[in-house]
Design brief:
It is built from four helices and two strands; from the N terminus they run H-H-E-E-H-H. By secondary structure, it is mainly α. Strands 1-2 form a two-stranded antiparallel sheet. Helix 3 runs antiparallel to helix 4.
């Protein structure tokens, strides 16, 4: 792939992303969405984000990440549910992951 091809691809993606972002607010006033459809879209966005987060927490490339990373993520989730400050959530999750890896749990 040449530099020109790469830059063309980047430019096309940038313009496409911008157009998608502008189209949403522009069309929002023209189309009426039912309350049920709006609720469904809200839930779909949450499901998509959770799916991406879980995939990142469980897999490293195409392999299972082992037990340390999901355990750290689980501890972070529990700390967040208990409304711990963000720095505490991060330190707990990283500490559990690092501790398990230091003990030999991959």
């Amino acid at each position: 792939m040449t530099t020109a091809q790469l830059m063309t691809g980047v430019a096309v993606l940038a313009v496409g992303t911008y157009l998608i972002r502008v189209t949403g607010p522009a069309l929002r006033s023209r189309y009426e969405v039912s309350p049920g459809a709006a609720e469904l879209m809200d839930r779909a966005a949450i499901v998509l984000l959770v799916g991406v987060a879980l995939t990142g927490a469980v897999f490293a490339g195409q392999e299972i990440a082992g037990w340390a990373r999901p355990a750290g993520v689980a501890v972070g989730i529990v700390a967040a549910v208990w409304r711990a400050p963000l720095i505490v959530v991060i330190v707990l999750a990283a500490g559990v992951t690092a501790g398990l890896r230091a003990c030999g749990v991959a």
